[in-house]
Design goal:
2 domains, PLP-binding_barrel, Ala_racemase, 8-stranded mixed beta sheet, TIM Barrel, Ala_racemase_N, pyridoxal phosphate, 8-stranded parallel beta sheet, alpha/beta
Length: about 375
């Protein structure tokens, strides 16, 4: 089989999505399955829908178009503010988009008018992580201007946390989002039907008994694909953490010194991580590099350490075992490594499984976070 490759188990992704959809439904929260990490692959999108997600969300309109071309008719949400240069494509293929800029909304309105379609929008509120969002004090005036735009329908409010500065969802910022919704209704007579509280980073808050308030939607990607929450990268009880694995092939295996020698200058990528201790080690090189994945996001098999990577090579300390040239090494990934590997044209994608529900292996529940 081709290497490097991602082995993607659709059965385990179906299980993860089903468990999360069912658990959140008990709290009155719907799930938007986020498809951006796998470039809108129709195979995974269909599995998410079969598991019960109510809509699909992606940050790239090209991924949404890919799913449409594959015959997927589900509700699609563009979860990054549209580029003005792409508003015609957005209105044609996405049912809803998240927004923070009036100029973009005006362009969406004009595009929707041109094809006689109403485009739904979700306004994003800034609650401290300092990525996208309208400041809470500006929401009321902003909504009044949006209400004047033809062919634009305001569906509610949303927010995004943890992605830039790691600000965690908690009772305080989720209460502020609920308060903004109540203020919106009181000041503008807008009945917000969607209150999207965030992403997979919200799961700890909810599962630990957080006060839900008006939050009725989450946008989940990492927790479905990797079975982990993003704040501490801990495994979520009952979910598979190995639904996706990265497999690479050994192209060199030799006994080498653990320490480099010679005059040291800058390397191509940061500094090397030498093995612990001194003496010789069993060193292996894999035919995969930083052009294909994030080596810091690879969780190596027991007894193996990822030492470093260049653009095309990943160097391992294989401990007591000397690997064979041609041997395959399998890694679990964090979100950064998965995102890079899915994007790389040099990493093949191998989908396995149908949609059968598998029993999770208890040993997978509490695996340590990827390095």
């Amino acid at each position: 089989m081709n290497t490097p490759r991602l082995d993607i188990n659709l059965d385990k992704i179906f299980h993860n999505a089903s468990v999360l959809v069912k658990r959140l439904k008990e709290d009155g929260i719907s799930v938007t399955g986020v498809t951006k990490a796998f470039l809108g692959a129709p195979q995974i999108a269909r599995i998410m829908l079969k598991a019960g997600v109510t809509s699909l969300g992606d940050s790239r309109i090209s991924n949404i178009e890919r799913m449409r071309h594959a015959g997927i008719l589900a509700r699609m949400v563009l979860i990054r503010s549209p580029m003005i240069s792409q508003v015609d494509r957005v209105v044609a293929s996405a049912d809803m988009s998240v927004n923070t800029e009036l100029d973009v909304l005006c362009a969406l309105s004009a595009a929707a008018l041109r094809i006689g379609k109403v485009h739904d929008v979700l306004l994003m509120v800034e609650l401290g992580d300092l990525r996208e969002g309208i400041m809470p004090s500006d929401i009321s005036d902003f909504v009044q201007q949006v209400a004047l735009l033809p062919n634009i329908k305001l569906m509610g409010l949303g927010t995004n946390l943890a992605c830039r500065n790691g600000i965690s969802p908690d009772n305080e910022n989720m209460t502020k989002l609920s308060a903004a919704v109540r203020q919106l209704y009181a000041a503008n007579s807008v009945n917000a039907t969607i209150v999207s509280g965030g992403n997979s980073s919200n799961l700890n808050w909810i599962f630990d008994g957080g006060k839900i308030g008006k939050i009725n939607n989450l946008r989940l990607g990492e927790s479905i694909l990797l079975g982990r929450e993003p704040l501490q990268r801990k495994a979520i009880l009952g979910l598979f953490t190995d639904a996706t694995k990265l497999v690479a092939e050994v192209i060199e295996s030799k006994i080498k010194p653990s320490k480099a020698w010679g005059t040291i200058a800058q390397s191509a990528f940061k500094g090397a991580r030498n093995s612990v201790g001194s003496g010789n080690i069993n060193q292996a090189i894999l035919a995969i590099g930083r052009q294909d994945t994030d080596p810091e996001g690879l969780q190596a098999p027991k007894g193996v350490i990822v030492l470093d990577a260049s653009s095309d090579h990943t160097i391992l300390d294989t401990g007591k075992n000397k690997l064979r040239v041609g041997e395959e090494v399998s890694f679990q990934l964090n979100y950064s490594a998965l995102l890079s590997a899915m994007t790389s044209p040099y990493v093949s994608k191998n989908f396995t499984g149908s949609s059968a529900i598998l029993r999770p292996n208890p040993d997978l529940h509490f695996l340590p976070a990827a390095a």
